[in-house]
Structures are given as C-alpha cells and as structure tokens.
Amino acid sequence: MSEPRMFHRSRRQVDLLIRGAQVLDPRTGLDEPHDILIRDGRIAELGSPGSLPAPEGGELFDATGKYAFPAFVDPHVHLRTPGQEYKEDIESGTAAAAAGGFCEVVAMPNTDPVIDDPALLASVVDRAREQARVPVGLLGSITRGLRGEELTEMAALSDAGALGFTDDGKPVVSAGMLRKALQYQRLCGGVIALHEEDPSLSRDGVMHEGAVSARLGLAGIPSVSESTMVTRDAALARYEDARVHFQHISAAETVSALEHARADGLRITSEVTPHHLTLTDDVVRTLDSRFKMNPPVRSDRDRRALVDALRRGVIDCVATDHAPHARHEKEVPFEEAAMGTTGLETAFAALFTELVLPGELELEVVVERMSAGAAVYGLPIPRITPGEPANLVVVDLDAQFEVGAGGYVSRSENCCFHGRNLRGRVLLTLAAGGVAFRERMLVEAALS
Amino acid sequence: MSPRIGRHLISIEDLDRAGIERILDRAESFAEVSGREIKKVPALRGRTVVNLFYEASTRTSSSFELAAKRLSADVVSIRSTGSSIDKGESLKDTVHTLSAYDPAAIVIRSPHAGAAQLVAGWTAAAVINAGDGKHEHPTQALLDVFTLRRRLGALDGARIWIVGDVLHSRVARSNILGLRRMGAAVTVCGPPTLIPREIEALGCKATASLERLHEADVVYVLRMQQERMRDAFVPSLREYAARYQIDAARLRPGQLLMHPGPVNRGIELSADAIDSPVALIGEQVKAGVAVRMAVLYELLAGTPLLAAVA
User: Fold this and answer.
1) Looking at the partner chain, which of A217, A287, A332 has a beta carbon nearest the beta carbon of B117?
2) Has residue A173 been placed in a domain?
C-alpha cells in the first residue's frame, strides 16, 4: 500500500555506474569503497572499485574519494501547495529536497486552504504527479481548518492518498478531540503526527523561555509547553492503542517524556530537526528573524539531550520541518516575523559540520537517522543493495560551501544556516530510479 | 582607553562605561544651555532629525524633539496614526522613504524588539532606539544614571532596587545593564509572575519580597504596564498595591525614589511617596532633554557636515 501513496512525475530510469564511492549503509553494515552499477533505475550490482564496466548507453560517474549513502527521507516539509506558492511549490520544494540529498518527502497540510478535504487532497496528488522531482507523501489534517473542532473525513482522505494526519503548525488542544481521532485511526489507518504545544503556556511566545528571552524582553515558549502535551498524548495513545508520531521535538523534558512512554512499550515515534540539534537560543540575541521558528531552538542542555536521544534511538529520525517564507514575511521585527526556517538544502551538511566533525555524533548515526523517517510512515527505507530501486546520494565530505552564497534552490531564502560555512556537499541524488539532482559544477565540468 | 560610542545607540550595551560618562559629561554642559534664556546652540544646524514613533509617548517624543531643536536641527516627527504607517506601509518602506530626505539621525520608538536594529540596516542615518518593545530604552537608562550621578556622585557600590513589572519593562532591562556598567549592584523585586525566568543572567539579583528593601540606596519603581499585558499577571491591582506599592512607610530616610513615568498613582506608587522630597521623578524628566541632546551630539558630531560647519 505504500507505493501508490508517494507521488511524483515520471522520470527516465537511469543506467549509470558510480565508480569507487565509499559506500556507507549503516543498516547493512556496509562501509567500503565500491562500484555501484545501476541499470534501469535499480541497483544491479556492487563491485570492488574499478571492477564494473559502465552500462551500455549509460553514464559513468567517478565518485572516487566521495561517499555514497542511502538517500535521505524527510518526514516533515512544507511545500506550501495549494495557496502559498509565492513561498514554495511542489516543483521548487522537491527540487530543494533533491539538492539536499532527499529521495522522498512528506508534505504537511497547513496550506491555504488547509488540506482537510478529499477532493482537495486528490488535486494536490495530481499536481505532485506533474511536478514532483522526488516522491511526495501527503498528510491530511486531523481537524477541519486546523481549528481543532471537528474531525476531517479521515477515511476518505486516506482513500484519496493521505499517508496520515496532522494539524502541524498547531496542536490539537482538546484532549477529547484528539481521542476521537485516535479512535477513528482504527478505521482508516495512517499515522497521526502531532505538533505538541500547550497554547496556555506558549501563548504569544516567540522564542525559548530562558536567559536570552529575559535579556531581549521577548515572550518565551517554555519547554514544558511541549513536554506536558507529549505526556498527555502518550497517555491517550496508550489508552486507545493508537499509532502516533511526535513532530519536531525540542526540549530535554520531552526526551524524558518519550523515554517513559517507550518504556511502557508504546508504539510511538518522533523526529528532531537539524536546527534543534545544532543551534541554541543564543543565536536569537541577534534578533535575526531567520532564527524564529516553532518550536524554538532552546538551551544547550536541551540541544545536547536531543543529540543524545537521537543517538540512542529515543528519537527515531531527522526531519527538516522545511518552512519557506517570503522575504517580506521575514524582513520585519522579530515578534512580527513568520515562524520557520528552510532546511532541505542544508540538513546533511549542517549535521555533518556541526555534529560529526566535532565528534558529537557518529557519521553512521546521522546517515541512518536521515532516512529513518521513511519507517515512520511505513515506507520502504532506501538501501544500497542489489535489487533495490536507486535511492542514493553521493556526497563530497571535504567540499565546503557558504550557505546561500550561490542562492537557493528553494523559492525562499529564510535559512537559519545562511552565511555559515558548511562541509559535506551533495553531488548527486538518485530518487525512485532517476537522477533528481546533479551538482551544477559537475554539469559545467562535463560541458567544458 | 577612549570611550566606546558606536554609530548608533540601539542598546545600552553599545556604550562602555567611559562612553556613558562622556555622554553624561556632555549632558551636563547642555543642561547649562537649558538654563539660558535662549536655549539653543548651533551644533546641528542644517541637519535633519526624524522622530518615528510607532507607540504613544509623551516624555520621550517631546524631549527628543526639544533636544534636536535646541541643537538647531530640522525636526520631522512622525506618528503611526495619520501617516502611511496607518495605511499598512511596512517599516522597511517607511524607512526608505524617510531616508530619501537624507536625515542625520532617525529616532525610533516601536512596540517590537529589534526594530531599531532593523532600521539601522536600512538607512545611512544614525539610529537611536527610543524604546523597542520590551527590549531596551537606552536613553532612559542614560538619563536615570545622569540623575543619580548628580545626587550620589559615583554609582560604584550603590544598591539599587528595581521594583514592579520587570517582565514588560524595557526600562528595567536597559537600567539593569546600564547601572551595572556604572558599578551599581542591582536587585529586581516583584511578583513572580512579573519577573522573567532567568533574569539573574543580566547580572542582578531577583526577589519576590520587599522585606529587605531597607538595604537599597535607591528604589526605582516601575510602571504597571497594563497596556502590554494580555491577561492578568496579578489577581488584582488592589492585591498588587497591598504587596508592592511603594509608599512613605516602606521607604527609609535617606533612600532616593525614581520612576520612569507615567505613574499609575495609587498602584505602584502612593501619592505621599510621589510628592516626597526624596522622589527624583521631576529631575528625571528634566534630565531627558539634556541627555538626549548629548546623545544626538555625540552620535552626529565629527561626521562630515558638522566638521564643515565647525
């Protein structure tokens, strides 16, 4: 059932030899140099470097000294279709995903209008079939208009192709309403993904509550606004034996809540973003609205707890929460600015540069957790194994680049890593058996 | 070491101690000007100062206007009501429009933290923060330090209690930092719902009790910012007044009393305290013009046009 729930435009199935890449696939324990032969969009054979010939009529990609990983899967992006195409659309958003090494993304329904209606969802499916460079999964909303008052037609949304449900951007405030959705899940299946925030605690907060918010006079979003809701909803999920996924975890207190819930054998998963893993509220001292996101980046204690939880598997996967916004929505005072940062194009490089290089997290863990989001929604996890469809990414770990210096593939430029020098450049992304992204400099080199 | 005064005055932290002292010394000489019959000096003749106020203000806007006029600058004052701001013009577009007049300085008051800093990125003018949200109000801190320095001499070791609604107060933030920079020891006191979590990171102590108020040399009372409260942070103003109102009985002899204004009479301050001889509230207002003249002068002095005139 998973295959028809991911939608993309058809693409020529590639014949390609990737020569001499250091192949790292933590799930199969593979970590050595190999030639990777891809025929008709599938991994045909792995061989020692230089041992395999380029396929007839196909291409040779010399990846000596470069790494090949299973391509990344992002369980949380905002593609802004329908209604907010001035920020992003399916074409530009999936192009950004491919540029970041992602072979699949899951799009959130907090669009304008909200994807709370089966016919609307079907129209977005059609658009994804025309425009998506990498397969896109769609979530429908849990409640109509994200208002938290009435359930959507979850079963009909599921029939129309929804992978699951979320009111992302907003919490389901009423426990009774969420309980109904969890009950209804037994009928329609699909993961219920939760943005956790108690609005009576977060109120008009715009950043993490702590020493920096005290200094800046900005209203704070306390860590407990997230952790108390995770505790509540884990209890509801246990009571209804439901399958829930907690989105963009940001606080150390929430990690504790997740551990408790897991210790009880609950079927929960959770995700964390590259910015919560690498930044702290200290960056907000600049009052740069690129650092305004919800949930907010928190203290270094929180950040370290998140890194540790990701390593131990308490948090399952990395999600970017790619949230593009137009310039006029960010070029305003911090309190007025829209919440969110883009993240698809920088996710791997940010984690590699800020966590792997300083020795805080192992490369294998980052690579594994960057595709683990597939399992959250029941999708096959990309593997570099003969017989599998070609979903892989080639990365130059030595190549350094300044974020944003060459512009962005995304339609928006509100990236919290803007201006940073990061290492780990994506050279080639294969998604669903086709070339989804090829680094521009390579194209130029090939032409000259 | 030469005093540090930046091109803009966005935060009190833009100034080091020597920079603050230099502005206060300059303000002393301008205070003398304010005592003359003709209260004008030609220092900024031919230059334009724009006052851009997105929030209601009496003291700050009028004193900035007077300060610029007493320095012979041309002054344009814009308020959010009755201007293009009312018609939805963005801050950026407004600043670009005003920058076309080539102002030497833009003085901005905004309900949002960071507004002055944004403006500084969009204009060639010197930018002075006249209050940005609950963030900072550096010229208020300067005039408060000026007022205290006149009374106490040096502030080194002075114990200053800031009492009341610290959460919503930009005055509190700029004053904690400014007073600390001048060597004072600062304690903030108020109901726990109105004291920001981790405020101690600014270098002050925090308490919910007035019990040790007698240890203070200066009691700086904050305005209850009811206009910035979205809901009740105290059960009632009556309960607040009972617990935290500063009246003559709570003050000990020798303590000085300050308040940034406007006062909620009978809430944070009693009438007898306001009218007592230890209250410096009137002196604070008077210091406003001289200190803002000094800020304008120090930021704009030495720039090309002024050098040509001089």
Assistant:
1) A287
2) yes
* Contacts by A2-6, CB closer than 8 A, 24 or more apart: A2/A377, A2/A378, A2/A379, A2/A380, A4/A161, A5/A137, A5/A161, A5/A162, A5/A163, A5/A379, A6/A104, A6/A135, A6/A136, A6/A137, A6/A379
Between the two ends of chain A, the Cα-to-Cα distance in Å is 45
- β-pairing verdict for A244-246 and A268-272: parallel
ipTM of predicted assembly, 2 dp: 0.92
Write the single-letter amino acid at B152. Answer: L
Band of pLDDT at residue A3, cut at 50, 70 and 90: very low
B37 part of a folded domain: yes
What is the extent of the structural domain holding B240? 138-285
A and B: number of Cβ contacts within 8 A: 68
Exposed e or buried b for every residue in B19-48, given b needs 16+ CB within 10 A? Answer: bbebbbebbeebbebbeeeeeebebbeebb
**Across B14-24, average pLDDT:** 96
Closest by Cα among B223, B292, B291 to B259:
B223
* Among candidate residues A63, A70, A71, the one with its CA nearest the CA of residue A19: A63
Residue B85 belongs to some domain of the structure: yes
Both A119 and A53 in a single domain?
Answer: no
3-state secondary structure B273-286: HHCCCCECHHHHHH
Q: Closest Cα of chain B to A333: distance in Å?
A: 5
Indicate if A305 and A183 belong to the same structural domain: yes
Q: Which domain holds residue A180?
A: 71-376
B121 and chain A: CB distance < 8 Å anywhere?
A: no
B134 and chain A in contact, CB less than 8 A: yes
Q: What is the CATH number of the domain that holds A47?
A: 2.30.40.10
The domain boundary, picked from A319, A353, A376, lies at: A376
Contact (Cβ atoms closer than 8 angstroms) between residue A77 and residue A166: no
Q: Do residues A437 and A99 lie in contact, with contact meaning Cβ atoms separated by under 8 Å?
A: yes
Residue B1 located in a structural domain: no
Residues A322, A343: contact at Cβ < 8 Å?
Answer: yes
Q: A421-431 and A392-402: which strand pairing?
A: antiparallel
Q: Are residues B143 and B278 in the same domain?
A: yes
List, for residues A131-153, the tens digit of each pLDDT value: 999 999 999 999 999 999 999 99
pLDDT band at residue B50 under the 50/70/90 scheme: very high
Contact B113 A209 (CB under 8 A): no
Beta-carbon separation of B91 and A332 below 8 A: yes
A58 class by beta-carbon count within 10 Å (0-12 exposed, 13-18 middle, 19+ buried): middle
What b/e string do you get for A76-111 counting C-beta neighbours within 10 Å, with b at 16 or more? bbbbbbbebbebbbbbbbbbbbbbbbbbbbbbbbbb
CATH number, domain with residue B183: 3.40.50.1370
Nearest CA in chain A to B133: A217
Check CB contact under 8 Å for A334 and B173.
no
Report the C-alpha gap between A81 and A206 in whole angstroms: 25
Record the tokens describing residue A318, joined without a space.
């990395």
Using the structure block, give the residue that is written with the tokens 């007698």.
B214
Question: What are the distances in angstroms from CA B220 to CA A178, B102, B186, B188, B250?
Answer: 49, 39, 10, 9, 13
Q: State in Å, rounded, how far the first CA of chain B is from the last one.
A: 26
Catalytic site residue A321?
A: yes
Q: CB of B112 within 8 Å of any CB in chain A?
A: yes
- Exactly one of A204, A321, A396, A398 is catalytic; which is it? A321
Contact between A412 and A326 under an 8 Å Cβ cutoff? The reply is yes
Residue contact B198–A210, C-beta within 8 A: yes
Q: Identify all chain B residues contacting A331, using CB atoms and an 8 Å cutoff.
A: 90, 92, 118
- Mention every residue, 6+ apart, whose C-beta is less than 8 A from residue A241: none
Q: Is 50 exceeded by the pLDDT of residue A54? A: yes
